[in-house]
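Translate structure to sequence.
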């Protein structure tokens, strides 16, 4: 059982209505796509980090929550409308997480799963509801996606989203190791080469990192983004991979947002 599974229970329940606007000192985040492996990990990381007073999540049906600070919002993606009254500013920072579908349990079906061709419509709705910082997260394991979804993600109209007027906008790419990432010790390099012969024939730069590692980076990025300089950024695959190697990605995120030199990270050593 995960933190999110403990917090949510799908069914016929009464959701919060008439939410009141919060003061400027209280921050709110919203997640669209909280049901997949990566999306649920992002949602959990935001809740665990407690950097936002309220974490809202778009849902397709009523959910009951037993966790303080988590607020489901029923949203119809086709109509770009909600089934409940909302404040003028729905969130300070929003995250749209694209992920492959999973069927771990029925709860995933209760979360809105953004469609690639609906990015501009959803982004426009978020901007109209007062969101000023937006993070668009591509799947952390791009190579495992169905071809149809790969094509859809490749056609995302990122330029249209960038032109909507978000103060801060970040597109997070799928994590990949740098092409020249290799151990410095010859013995470790020999071990890496031998282990590579026993692995599935997939390039090392395309092997996925754990969703929870990417989620920590994304949550930290969302927490710091509102305090950074305005503009549109693209978090490259190498940056996401580098953040996944760190115990705490905060220094890396802070340096990247400030356009400073990034801290060095050594690739983790493999074990026999």
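Result:
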């Amino acid at each position: 059982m995960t933190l999110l599974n403990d917090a949510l229970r799908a069914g016929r329940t009464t959701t919060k209505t008439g939410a009141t606007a919060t003061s400027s000192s209280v921050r709110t985040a919203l997640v669209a796509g909280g049901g997949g492996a990566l999306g649920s990990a992002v949602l959990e990381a935001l809740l665990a980090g407690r950097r936002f007073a309220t974490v809202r999540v778009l849902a397709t049906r009523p959910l009951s929550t037993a966790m303080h600070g988590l607020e489901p919002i029923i949203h119809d993606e086709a109509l770009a409308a909600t089934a409940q009254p909302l404040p003028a500013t729905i969130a300070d920072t929003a995250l749209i997480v694209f992920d492959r579908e999973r069927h771990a349990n029925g709860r995933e079906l209760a979360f809105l799963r953004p469609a690639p061709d609906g990015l501009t419509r959803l982004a426009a709705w978020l901007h109209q509801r007062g969101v000023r910082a937006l993070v668009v997260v591509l799947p952390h394991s791009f190579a495992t996606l169905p071809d149809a979804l790969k094509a859809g993600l490749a056609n995302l109209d990122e330029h249209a989203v960038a032109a909507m007027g978000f103060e801060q906008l970040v597109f997070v790419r799928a994590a990949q190791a740098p092409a020249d990432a290799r151990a410095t010790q010859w013995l470790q390099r020999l071990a890496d080469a031998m282990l590579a012969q026993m692995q599935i024939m997939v390039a090392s730069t395309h092997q996925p990192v754990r969703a929870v590692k990417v989620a920590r980076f994304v949550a930290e990025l969302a927490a710091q983004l509102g305090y950074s300089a305005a503009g549109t950024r693209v978090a490259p695959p190498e940056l996401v991979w580098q953040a996944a190697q760190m115990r705490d990605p905060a220094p890396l995120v802070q340096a990247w947002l400030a356009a400073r030199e990034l801290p060095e990270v050594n690739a983790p050593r493999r074990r026999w």
